[in-house]
Specification:
- The protein is α+β, with helices and mostly antiparallel strands.
- It has a single domain, classed as Nucleoside Triphosphate Pyrophosphohydrolase (Alpha-Beta Complex).
- 34% of the residues lie in helices and 18% in strands.
- The chain contains seven helices and eight strands, in the order H-E-E-E-H-H-E-E-H-E-H-E-E-H-H.
- The termini are far apart.
């Protein structure tokens, strides 16, 4: 009996630990211009991952939406305040990929990408400089890579004319494309559901 109780306690503790695991989350910022959709993406600077939207791991006590808003604020050099971002996403359900990454979508007004790139940093914290430069990339550039399976070992190039000066890479981060594909497969792209 004691042995069964110990095993049961271990299982319960394991299940509780899983529900409290730190969930990564982020936001795809986009704007519409006529029938075209543009995504505000950023390079991963010197990591050579490639271009993607924003996101990362949670801090202690954060909700998934709070994590997405904080990470996006940090990775856009503080240009988009987390309170503003949270207001855009907190009533929405994210798309969660097979690895647990929660992806939100938020429509924003157009802002020149150079303003984000040149935004004065809100603090000396390194989290504000891990991404950049920034560019508005047409959804058509992403769509062609997420209509089929994503090859995670391949670089998925972005048209050279869309790349800003100072870019480190010129391809999409395959892991992000996989998460984006999950959103497309589940019909969760907001510009598809709004029509």
């Amino acid at each position: 009996m004691l042995r069964k109780s110990v095993v049961l306690c271990i299982i319960i503790i394991g299940l509780c630990a899983r529900t409290q695991a730190k969930s990564p989350a982020g936001i795809v910022l986009y704007f519409k211009s006529g029938d075209d959709i543009f995504l505000l993406l950023a390079d991963h600077r010197e990591s050579k991952r490639g271009w993607a939207a924003y996101g990362g791991g949670s801090d202690e006590g954060e909700s998934v939406a709070q994590t997405a808003a904080r990470e996006t604020e940090e990775e856009t050099r503080g240009y988009f305040p987390r309170k503003y971002l949270l207001g855009l996403i907190e009533s929405k359900d994210p798309v969660v990929d097979q690895d647990g990454f929660a992806m939100y979508f938020a429509e924003i007004p157009f802002v020149p990408a150079q303003l984000v790139t040149n935004n004065p940093l809100p603090s000396d914290d390194d989290v504000y400089v891990e991404r950049g430069p920034y560019a508005w990339i047409p959804y058509s550039q992403v769509r062609k890579y997420v209509e089929g399976s994503v090859d995670y070992k391949r670089k998925h190039p972005i048209e050279a004319g869309l790349m800003p000066a100072g870019n480190y890479t010129s391809w999409f981060w395959p892991i992000w494309l996989g998460s984006f594909r999950r959103a497309a497969e589940s019909d969760a792209l907001p510009w598809n559901t709004e029509r």
